[in-house]
Amino acid sequence: SAAARRLSGAGLLTAGDVPLPGPDELPVYRTEDILRRSADDGAFRALLGECQRVLGHTLSSADLNTLFGIYDRLGMTAETILLLIHHCADKLRRRYGEGRLPTMRAIEKEAFYWANREILTAPQAEEYLAALARRDEEMEKVRHALSLTGRDLTPTERKYIESWLSMGYGAEALAIAYDRTVVGTGKLAWAYMDKIVKSWYEKKLFTAEQIEKGDSRASSRAKPAAESAPRRTGG
Predict the structure, then answer these.
(1) Neighbour count for residue 109 (Cβ, 10 Å)
(2) At what angle do helices 42-55 and 31-40 cross, to 10 degrees?
(3) Which of 14, 52, 95, 221 is deepest in the core (most CB within 10 A)?
(4) Where are the domains positioned within the chain?
């Protein structure tokens, strides 16, 4: 893979190495070796200091090993790892408020997630985080459109909404699907709404205007209304 080529080019892989080991498979380093590397490597020294500042404590030997393993093994720049750490902290802060901080285990999992998607440089990380921010903004609009405020989404609810967003549907179109779902079932039935959205996707109807013009349900509702209108008589 491209990630493996980058690691190999940086001298971090040998021929028999697995490109991206899973969590719990980072190498085990001697603490004195990490501290010596920290003294010699200004980038890692700055990374270590900022990580401890964000987490609010001195890293344990195990956490120090994890941080150094991410830096040494996954091919990320120190700046990328700093962005990742701040992202993990911000995510918890938005969800739980001040005082909730990520563990190194959570940071490690996120690091593998990024590495497997080849988010290795600061520009790549910034692009990814900007895309996440846009998605979260759209997610919030959809939550309001579906009257799902005041609580966290369940994993299943989030999965449905993320699927619809990835298909190209915004809050305005999904509000129409929601309305039709409630009219048809008396509640927010996720599977029912999913069928509506997928039917639009098959017809290549994405915007509210396209849906109102191209969906047979919309035209069938308009037709009886037109037929029931009183006819003008002469005279």
Answers:
(1) 15
(2) 110
(3) 52
(4) 22-120, 129-216
In angstroms, the CA 176 to CA 43 distance is 51
- Going from the C-alpha of 197 to that of each of 92, 125, 159, 183, the distances in angstroms are 31, 31, 14, 15
Whole-structure pTM over 0.85, yes or no?
no
Answer for the pair 43, 78: CB distance below 8 angstroms, yes or no: yes
DSSP 14-64: -TT--SSPPTT-SPP--HHHHHHHHHH-HHHHHHHHHHHHHHTSPPPHHHH
Sign of the CA dihedral running 17, 19, 22, 25:
positive
* Of 176, 167, 162, nearest in space to 208 by CA: 176
10-residue stretch averages of pLDDT, the chain, 235 residues long? 42 40 74 90 94 94 95 94 96 85 94 95 96 92 92 92 94 96 95 96 94 70 40 46
